[in-house]
């Protein structure tokens, strides 16, 4: 049992067990993705500790060595300290903890009659973006690892910033985002936005996922997405601007 506790004490080893919980039977090359930045030798060392504690088992499949999660030692720990009388209460409190601490995720899906290339341009071109994104532009060189800034000539300061994690035109864009338009949203820190574009007949299915938000995050961070996506659809399909509450917030007065 001491070996089990020692194996579980390391966050890297817990990450490997989480990866096997999500998908059992992974090769070493696949498990390396669970520990980015760690050498292959380091991952092998952690797997040996887990195997020594009986938490990971292996079997050969041709030339591949597959790893499997063995939850029996963890169950033995559970059975030793949690009686059948306290188990329902422990399970309820554990579930409450997970629900309170789990990051919040918002997912929006919309179908737009356009091409993937034109939709990608509408997302990344700062002038087009301003037409449906409250008048705000997003500028970047759109390369993986590059930064972007969000702003508008009529805004009192920068409106947002972040990093482009994945840039795969015209299919997928993953970005971190830190809102800057008020002190309240600044304190929320960074979250993540994923744009996923899929051809669908003569149209595109756009799925926007805004995640890594803390539970109870300020609604200003995600509450504007329905208006933004509706404005994007309207502009691409009709060439017209959609006037919604706040949609022209940072648009400079005309004339």
Low-confidence stretches: none
The assigned CATH architecture of the largest domain is 2-Layer Sandwich
Strand content: 25-35%
Instruction: Tell me the total number of β-strands.
Output: 9
* Count of DSSP H/I helices: 10
Q: Structural class of the secondary structure composition?
A: alpha+beta
The CATH topology label of the largest domain is Alpha-D-Glucose-1,6-Bisphosphate, Chain A, domain 4
Average pLDDT confidence is 86
Adjacency order of strands in the biggest sheet:
3-9-8-7-6-5-4
Largest sheet: 7 strands, antiparallel
N-to-C order of helices and strands: HHHHEEHHEHHEEEEHEEH
So what's the oligomer here?
Answer: single chain
Number of domains: 2
For the record, what is the CATH homologous superfamily label of the largest domain? START domain
Task: Identify the overall geometry.
Answer: elongated
How far is the first residue's CA from the last residue's CA?
76 Å
> Helicity level, as a percent range?
25-40%
Radius of gyration equals 24 Å
CATH class of the largest domain: Alpha Beta
Overall description:
The protein is α+β, with helices and mostly antiparallel strands and 255 residues long. It folds into two domains: 2-91, Arc Repressor Mutant, subunit A; 104-238, START domain (Alpha-D-Glucose-1,6-Bisphosphate, Chain A, domain 4, 2-Layer Sandwich). 37% of the residues lie in helices and 27% in strands. The chain contains ten helices and nine strands. The strands form two sheets. A seven-stranded antiparallel β-sheet has the order 3-9-8-7-6-5-4. The chain has a two-stranded antiparallel ribbon with strand order 1-2. A hairpin with a 2-residue loop joins strand 8 (190-200) and strand 9. The longest helix is centred in the middle third of the chain and has 15 residues, at 87-101. It is elongated, with a radius of gyration of 24 Å. The model has no long low-confidence stretch (mean pLDDT 86).
């Amino acid at each position: 049992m001491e070996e089990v506790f020692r194996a579980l004490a390391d966050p890297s080893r817990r990450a490997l067990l989480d990866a096997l919980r999500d998908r059992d039977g992974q090769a070493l090359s696949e498990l390396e993705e669970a520990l980015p930045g760690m050498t292959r030798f380091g991952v092998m060392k952690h797997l040996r500790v887990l195997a020594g504690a009986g938490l990971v088992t292996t079997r050969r499949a041709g030339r591949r060595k597959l790893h499997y999660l063995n939850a029996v030692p963890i169950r033995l720990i559970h059975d030793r300290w949690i009686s059948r009388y306290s188990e329902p209460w422990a399970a309820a409190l554990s579930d409450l903890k997970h629900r309170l601490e789990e990051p919040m995720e918002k997912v929006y899906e919309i179908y737009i009659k356009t091409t993937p290339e034109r939709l990608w341009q509408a997302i990344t071109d700062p002038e087009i973006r301003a037409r449906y994104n409250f008048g705000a532009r997003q500028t970047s060189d759109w390369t993986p690892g590059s930064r972007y800034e969000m702003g508008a000539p009529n805004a009192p300061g920068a409106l947002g910033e972040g990093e482009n994690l994945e840039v795969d035109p015209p299919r997928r864009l993953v970005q971190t985002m830190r809102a800057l338009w008020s002190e309240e949203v600044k304190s929320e820190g960074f979250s993540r936005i994923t744009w996923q574009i899929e051809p669908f007949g003569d149209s595109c299915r756009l799925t926007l996922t805004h995640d890594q938000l803390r539970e109870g995050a300020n609604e200003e961070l995600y509450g504007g997405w329905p208006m933004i996506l509706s404005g994007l659809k309207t502009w691409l399909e009709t060439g017209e601007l959609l006037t919604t509450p706040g949609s022209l917030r940072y648009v400079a007065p005309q004339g």
